[in-house]
Amino acid sequence: MPSDAGTGAPRPSPTELWRLPRIVKLSIERVRYPRPRRHVQAGRVVEVPEGVEVFVETAEELPIRALSPALYIGTTEVVENERVGERQYRFFVLDESTLRDGSPIALGWAGVPGRRVRSSFRYRVTRDRARPKGRQTP
Amino acid sequence: MEIPRERLKLRDDKSVISPPSLDPVYQCATVVVVRGFIANATLDVRVDGTTVVTGFPGGFPVPNGAVVPLPTALVANQTVRARQKFGGATSAWSAPITVRDHTVDYPAGPPRPEINPAPVYECGARTGVANLLVGSEVWITADSVEVGRVTGAAAHQGVNVTPDYGLGQQVLAWSSMCKDPSPASALQISQPSPSPLSTLGFLPVYEGGQQITITNVVNGARITLSRNGIVQFTFPSWGYQHLVGLNPPYSQGEQLSATQQLCLSDPPSQPGTTTVQPCSALPAPQVAPVQAGDTSITLTAFVSDARIKVFVNGVKTGDGGGPIVQLTAPVGDGDTIDVLQIVGTCVGRTVQEVRVLCVAPPVTYDPSALNLFPVGFTEYDGGTVTVTTGRTHRIDGTVYYPAEADGTRTAFNQRLAKLGRVPIAILVHGRHGGTTSHLGYDYFQKQLARIGIIAASVDCNASDQWGGWTDNIRDRADIVIASIAHLKALDAGGDAIFGGRIDFTRVGLMGHSRGGEAVIVVPEIIGLAGVTIRGVISLGPVNAGASSGKPKGYALMVILPASDGDVIDNNGAMFYDAGDPGPFKSQLYVHHANHNYFNREWLNDDTGGGLPIMARFDHERILSTYGCAFFRSVLLAHSTIGFLIGTMWPPGVLTSNVHLSFQQRGAITVDNHEDGNGIGVNSMGQPTTQSGGLTAAEHPFAQGVPGRFNDSFFGNTVGMVAQSKGRSGVFRSAFDTARDLRGLQLWLRAAEVYNGSSVPAGATGFSVGLEDDNGAVVWAASDNVGGLPRPLDRRAYDLGEWYATDKTKTMLKTLRFPAHCFKPVRPRTRFNLRRVRAALLKLDRGDRRALAFDDLQVVKL
After folding, report:
1. Does B609 reach chain A within 8 Å, measured CB to CB?
2. pLDDT tens, B638-676?
3. Cis peptide bond prior to B119, omega within 30° of 0
4. Complex ipTM, two decimals?
5. Most A-contacting residue of B802, B805, B807 (CB-CB within 10 A), to test interface
């Protein structure tokens, strides 16, 4: 009887769940919405007439999984986001009060504050579309 | 533990033999099925006090018992008993069973027959049919032509087929009870005969035996059995395993061989052979755990025709046949049970010895196996909905429902519909990407449908691409509500399948991952008139803060995969902790379960092979059995809640991995540590004390909260952590009044605390005490009620992952201490269970480990 031969099946590749890419492009602007944006905070819907948005372009797509990616501005976790294009995401700042100009920006996971992927970008609103020209943030 | 028989002084009273047991019986039956008797005993049957059958030859009790014909058909409410006679002894009559009217138990008709095992093959000559009512009529059709029939069937009945099946025939099984027809079985198409046929095997055969078990049998094959080279007989088999008797009993060294054949034009299989082993090789039987108060023992491994003798504290208390041997008296906590098997004249040299535990739940039935109806399937499309964030999403999904026949868009089951509207369970998946996540619970949907619950799975796949966190959970909840609204419109709008069929006052929800949080949100925001959510299953949920975090107003079940590689914090523990127990809440903390394997479309192991994980099948078994038990309880009022409390276990489930917490409305809380009144006062407003070197304090059992004991707690509650320097550390919690605990139980959530660095070898435990108003004290050990749960060690895995943080958890489970478990240290101590004034916790292991406690309650079950 001829004998079969072969190698074992390869071990599954390490989980890709946690892989976070580099931020390659980032811009921050204040936006006034034609209609207030609706977000959910602490189980309640809040309407936001204007807010700061952080546009992020990453080197790769963010994994789709249960947990959400989060932007860390200083120590503040900014989680609410939407995918706006290939490798492009917009994060919504729902509470500006804890943000400071010049704070470092990193990418991490919501509720997992221990580690982040640092970037060279820092927090500063560079464009203000919420107010008339002449009142732009310097 | 297997020990030599000669070492024991077992008193074998030959006059003591066990009463047999009877399968449930229904009106119109002309047979009863008797089990648990000694092989070759004679059987008597009594109906309403009159002996109607005398001296029926029982044959072998395994596998199907004795099907005993009755002179007249049974009538509802008659009582039936049986007894056995063997070797000059006569058993007592069995406990009476009452003849039931199947239209009461199965108002929509008898259960659906199951061709089991399946599939059937060309040239097959016999087919097994299961899921039958005892005494029913069963028949088989091939291409609509009847090919076999049995009147007075057992629950699992073999039906000989004439002529043999042809290739590609459509084979169905049918049954009726009192001329009331069941639905047809699922369709089987007869398959080509396997070639070559597998070689038959044998289970071990011992000197003195008369029954052999042949394995590897192909469905419908004819088996030819030879003894010492001489053909004995040929018989058809329904397959898998076949037990057959031989006479005279066989002797050591005899050779048995068998072949199987399907089509006569094909060769038979190679012969399988075995040699009869000597008596000295006969092992002791294996015995399932025994619980105080049990009146029978269950064998998990035994020789099929063995006589089983049971000795309780050395006194013969049972003598019958497997797998369940009735006892002549209930066993008590701490009793020693010795079980011996005898095959013909061969008496086992060893016995199996077990100690009776106060709590050792029996393995009962599979709550997901109730099979009443064919299953229809359809998809729905309700257009689009604008969700909270302003985006639009399609309203679509799949529905499985009780039907007239299996298939797509088959008619709704008419008999069930005539009984009234049918409850519905709505399932919602998590965020995994792709387009098919909603299809991954089809196994659960089908099980619910065949039970009689409509099961819809909502397609939220497009929302996976949106991103978002809390907003996305809310959007999912909106999509679920839109689906309910659409199904409601189908119901109200005269839909061909669902028009007037759905009972929206009995709605259940099941969500997984992000869906697991969405189903906590839905009851808080749903505004649809006429919709009442009765129960919610939250499986491996995130907690993004989309809900109040305090589930309320419905029964709750949270399933937490301990080896979750995605939702690594098991955030659902917060929902259980903060949930209101009205009518009840339950939690399953499942060791060696990951995040993905509950969904058939989520193919990868989210731990990437980094943690030991149960097979996908075992994940599905947990959702199937516990999920069906949950929905049957809350939507159909079936008595399946015991699976969630832990008073019984489902078969075929790795229950040793399942750690249950349970709380119900109406319990008396001694201390839940939520009162903010400090460790010195309990929830009854009464004082607590610490003594004997024990130190205890209240801590938040939560992440990142000041005052937490350490970082191994992931819930949302306050509890107590206690440690003791020695073996006599005691925490005393006074009752508000002297309480009568007769027939009650003391419940307590408890766990070994993970120390943050390693899980020490060996389990630990503690004892619970009661103190009466005379100061007398009785104790019960945690080991005697199932044991203290240990942390599931995932440290090495977690530290190797991106987040590099140890997620090994201290996760409490509910331990139940029935009042009869408590024993005094000195046997003659008098204890007044009617006037108990305090509960005690004693850390008596001397290992200084910290233990976590919460929710000390007095409970009436």
Report:
1. yes
2. 999 999 999 999 999 999 999 999 999 999 999 999 999
3. yes
4. 0.91
5. B802
